[in-house]
Amino acid sequence: MTEFLIKNGFVFDPTLKIKGDVADVAIKNGKIVETDAVKKPKVIDASGKTVMAGGLEIHAHIAGPKVNVGRIYRPEDKLFNATAGLKATPTHMNTRMEGGFSIPTTYKTGYNYARLGYTTAMEAAMPPLFARHVHEEMRDTPIIDEGAYPVFGNNWFVLEYIKNREINNTAAYIAWLLEATKGFAIKSVNPGGTEAWGWGLNCLQVTDPVPYFDVTPQEITTGLIEANELLGLPHSLHIHGNNLGNPGNYTTTLDTLKAAEGHKAKNKFHREQVLHHTHIQFHSYGGDKWANFESKARPIMDYVNKHKNITVDVGFVTLDETTTMTADGPFEHHLTELNHLKWANVDVELETAAGVVPYVYSPDIFVCGVQWAIGLEIALLSKDPMRCFITTDHPNAGPFTRYPRILKWLMSQKARDEQIKAFKNSDKVVNGSEIASFDRELTLYEVAAMTRAGPAKALGLSHMYGGLKPGLDADVAVYNFNPEKENSPDEIEKAFSTVQYLFKTGEKIIKDGEIVSNGNKRTLWVHAKVEENPQVMRDIEEKFVKYYTVTKGNYEVHGKHFIPNPLAIEVDAT
Asked: Among 27, 137, 398, 411, who pairs with 474 as Cys (CB 3.0-4.6 Å)?
């Protein structure tokens, strides 16, 4: 492979504790190497530019059945921003046709992540029954490495085993399902609540019993944490808590976070956390009705800051028209009753359910303004950027293509003040939040932690991604941004909207802002080895015969058919 030397850039890398020093980055055989290891490299002059590792998306909805439902029943989404492929030239590949805004096509998803300087993205909620479909879409998505989190929080096997306190059986079943679906981590969405939705109910508190199974969300969460650590998986339990999106839900969120108390991480991947709470902005609401809706970001982040065995991602509201989609089926039905827009529901036998509803985060609506403020408060209140990550819960709070806009707000108090003034109900937004009093502006070093090093460490992938340390994969982004200049908010947003150069595992993907290669994408999954468990295998065989509409043989994903360049992260829990 070609050797490269990226010279004289302002480097920001938490893995090396480099905070904007002018330095060189060398690439050889797909890896970052010491600068004296390259002999005749191609030189990239990064003078006056910012250099970081490739970005890592810890939570987004980018592949699978609910994403496709959104694409099918929202043709209007394609009208917002559709672009043709690049014209073929001797130096530029011909990219495929691109379409969609909040739910971009698979091609546009890969291209747009690359344009932002991202090289890896994780699909946040894979229904196991549809794992083949998820992998087909990920295979179809160019450039970026991807993995997917199977959902477990409403799975019949899990509910029964945890009800009976059979943690070894829970772990054995999880290991089998990760292998069968080629999944990466344990995801729990509204634990117990989505199963209750099959009965027209929900679990809004962690002590609400799940119908028929007579187990609570609190017990499900604790059981999954214990099983996760018994297996020693790379990532912690990845949870979307109960009571999302309702005024006053911050108390439920605190109860969910308390499930991590007393638990320690047990793994070989340098992961320190046992629980990751996703899109926590949607779970940090005060008040008891929409009229007195207010931010409770501070009590949530006070708790997170004090408990180092927890990570979170934010779920920033970007003030766009978008498409909400989640395996939290009862929430989506509740949302369509609020905004009276079209609604789709997808139930998945024995496993999960999902809903899809369009939504407009209008700056003219007081609640949307406070939601916007809550997301920013969470990030600005974080005392450890290695445990708080930038996401939009794409596309739920807005499309991931708005990350540059979020960086503008986080890095510039002036940008925040301008947005507050632009709200129709600015006084109500100020009174319902603390954002107007915040003068903190994030540094590029903190941004690198929240988008690179932090997510990589939380996922147990810091041996591959997240930094510029020699030996890591050569995923490198070069932005046309000089941190020594006084940059306006608009200049911040523009600079991070299109990366100037992007390298992925040593291959040049973007040159002068143009995509020049599809790279060599990979799929990440976990191969968890456990002791043979005859009871669990009998249970699996029995339920497939009695309840599933497919056979076990047609359920499992076989890597050679579906997965490009599979990277199995091996875990030995025997």
From this structure: 27
Q: How far apart are CA 142 and CA 394, in angstroms?
A: 18
Q: Where does 141-166 have alpha helices with state H?
A: 156-163
Reduced DSSP (H G I as helix, E B as strand, rest coil) percent helix, strand, coil of the chain, to 5: 35, 20, 40
Whole-angstrom Cα distance, residue 390 to residue 369? Answer: 18
Q: CB–CB of 465/26 below 8 Å?
A: no
Q: Residues 292-328: pLDDT tens digits?
A: 999 999 999 999 999 999 999 999 999 999 999 999 9
Domains of the chain as residue ranges with CATH:
4-52+466-515 (2.30.40.10), 56-87+94-458 (3.20.20)
N-term to C-term CA, the chain? 39
Inter-residue contact 388 to 311 (CB < 8 Å): yes
Q: Is 211 exposed, middle or buried (0-12, 13-18, 19+ CB in 10 A)?
A: middle
H/E element holding 111?
helix 106-115
Contacts of residue 88, defined as CB under 8 A and 6 or more positions apart, other chains included, come to 94
* Residue bearing tokens 């908010």: 489
Please check whether residue 521 is in contact with residue 143, taking contact to mean a CB–CB distance below 8 angstroms. Answer: yes
